[in-house]
Write a structure and sequence with these properties.
Length: about 600
């Protein structure tokens, strides 16, 4: 049976009410515009919404074939029809659906896909999100892959009214671009990006293809990706993990897995600075000797790596650099020593109890800055340079370096998300629905269906990036004067004579490169700073988009600075998400910049 493909988009109004203004659908042979009409313009927001959605789902029911509808930001668009949808379709945990059944795949913060069968013809209808693949704006994505752009209008604060011809033209263009973008992404240098829901799932699928290849290689990023070395049936076999190993990894390594280090060494305004970052920091670690196989109590022959489990206390040496933080409140309470710990704060002292693991390279770096009194226990992994993983990383890096715009971002995201998939947790949260007294209730539930991939490798990669960052931090001469800021894979310091001898700059995967040479820098705190580059102020402020933050004059950004931003908020009754202007106060506290705004 043939499959029909469409681009679909919604527009909402936020003047005179809060609701659905139009739904636009674009296919190669059929287009449809569903919008407020004069006979319903004065109805309630809910009645207008249901009227438009009735027409939309009638369109679904009239499909002669199975159909795929591509959205750009499914999370927002589906929220406009979420309550309606749940009221009318029976939910199923199965993917083999019967007439009138649906499967909604989402986390509390992100919608991934919706699949359902129409009630009359039993056609399978699928909703997929292109934004999760390109991670950029529709305009930038379409420009890169389609060579076309949106229609721009002056005011997107749409009124509750019959759409004007300009609004209709604007809206239908978005649906058209979404359709054309999907068709382009279905054939990007030899692989179909739309086969998987997210860029992370696609990156793991690519690695799976590389692992199973018979040695002839596969086409990726416009070039042949060689596949040297032995093939395997799956990733776990390839890394020589067994089911019992995965349980041990979760028990021994999950609690101590950490992300990047973000630290403002000094605050204030500084002149003539250097901002450097690592070329593809996390991916570059994957072409080195990597850990594989089971966790061993005895040191193996040949190349190996070790995880150290300290039982004792750490106290920062005089003049030492803080390198340790804990991400959960539970760990802060468990491991505090003299000083109180807070999540995300780099600490001066802490006490470990033998259950927290630190990879050997980072442990050596930490004890160069902290005094330690206690005992340690070590566990070992064999290590090797992995030819297939290295080949994939280098091929995607080639795609990133030779492409431009959003095409470059796609390869960059494929590179970075592969590391993220190695850290997949075995449990998480999902959304479930109930209908009580005619009202749809949306609630969080545990999701224990996830399959861990390669936790030791994911944990080790993050460690190696931290080691590369902090080893370089220690090379900056005159810490008290020159060292300003670091974040995961980047470093800002004042320029001084001979700095390039201390920190070699290169163009290859894993080398340090110059991000910028700002004339002035305003360091406010973690995730919060400004740079003046060629006379233009660029601002990074967690919680604010660049369209808002780059309007803040240089030097005015500070802790407590007040501005406004558009915030996505879900209505508890309609379940629809709307963008509302809300006040925003800059805060450099970790519990805020890590997502609790």
């Amino acid at each position: 049976m043939a499959v029909e493909y469409y681009g679909i988009d919604t527009e909402t109004y936020n003047q005179g009410g809060m609701g659905l203004k139009s739904i636009q659908i674009y296919g190669e042979k059929e287009q449809k515009y569903i919008a407020i009409t004069p006979d319903i313009v004065h109805a309630s927001d809910e009645k207008i919404r249901y009227h438009l959605l009735d027409e939309l789902f009638n369109f679904f029911e009239t499909r002669e074939n199975d159909a795929v509808f591509y959205f750009f930001n499914l999370t927002f668009d589906f929220s406009q029809m979420e309550k309606y949808f749940v009221e009318r379709y029976e939910q199923s945990e199965e993917f083999h659906l019967k007439k009138g059944e649906c499967n909604i795949l989402q986390s509390p913060n992100r919608m991934y896909s919706v699949k359902f069968r129409t009630k009359i013809g039993g056609r399978l209808i699928c909703f997929y999100d292109l934004w999760l693949l390109t991670a950029s704006s529709l305009n930038a994505s379409a420009k890169a892959f389609v060579g076309d752009t949106k229609i721009f209008i002056d005011d997107k604060n749409f009124e509750k009214a019959v759409p004007s011809p300009t609004e209709q033209k604007y809206a239908m263009k978005d649906a058209e671009l979404t359709f054309k973008l999907a068709m382009a992404l279905k054939d990007i240098h030899g692989f179909d990006l739309t086969e998987k829901i997210t860029i992370g799932a696609r990156s793991l699928a690519l690695f799976d293809e590389v692992i199973k290849s018979d040695g002839d290689g596969i086409d990726i990023a416009g070039m042949r990706c060689p596949t040297p070395g032995p093939s395997a049936k799956n990733i776990h076999e390839y890394f020589e993990f067994k089911p019992k190993d995965k349980r041990i990894f979760e028990l021994m390594l999950r609690r101590s897995t950490r992300g990047g280090i973000c630290q403002a060494f000094r605050t204030g305004i500084f002149k003539k600075c250097i901002h450097i970052d690592i070329h593809s920091a996390h991916p570059s670690q994957m072409v080195k000797l990597i850990p594989y196989g089971p966790m061993l109590e005895e040191k193996p022959e040949g190349a190996y790596d070790a995880v150290v489990y300290p039982d004792g206390v750490f106290v920062l040496k005089p003049g030492g650099l803080k390198m340790m933080s804990f991400t959960s409140k539970a760990n802060c309470l468990r491991y505090q020593y003299i000083s109180e710990n807070e999540p995300g704060i780099l600490v001066e002292d802490f006490a470990l109890d033998g259950s927290y693991g630190i990879w050997q390279d980072e442990y050596d770096l930490i004890i160069s800055q902290y005094d330690f009194i206690g005992d340690i226990k070590k566990y070992y992994f064999r290590s090797r340079i992995d030819p297939r993983l290295s080949s994939l990383v280098k091929t995607l890096y080639h795609g990133k370096e030779t492409a431009e715009g959003v095409r470059r971002n796609v390869y960059k995201d494929l590179l970075n998300s592969l590391y993220g998939k190695f850290l997949t947790r075995p449990d998480g949260e999902k959304i479930a629905y109930t209908i009580e007294d005619g009202k749809v209730l949306r609630r969080k539930e545990k999701d224990d269906t996830r399959k861990p991939v390669a936790l030791p490798l994911g944990s080790w990669i993050a460690t190696q990036t931290r080691v590369q960052l902090m080893s370089t931090v220690l090379k900056v001469k005159g810490h008290n004067k020159n060292l300003l800021y670091c974040d995961t894979d980047s470093l800002i310091f004042r320029e001084y004579d001979g700095w390039e001898e201390d920190i070699p700059i290169g163009d290859s995967l894993g080398d340090w490169g110059i991000e910028s040479r700002p004339e002035k820098v305003n360091i406010v705190g973690p995730k919060t700073y400004q740079e003046v580059i060629d006379g233009v102020t660029k601002t990074k402020c967690a919680g604010l988009s660049h369209s808002v933050s780059d309007l803040i004059p240089f030097g005015e950004l500070k802790d407590g600075y007040e501005t406004t931003r558009l915030k996505a908020e879900r209505d508890k009754d309609t379940l629809a998400i709307s963008l509302n202007e809300r006040p925003f106060t800059v805060s450099t506290k970790p519990q805020l910049y890590k997502g609790g705004h």
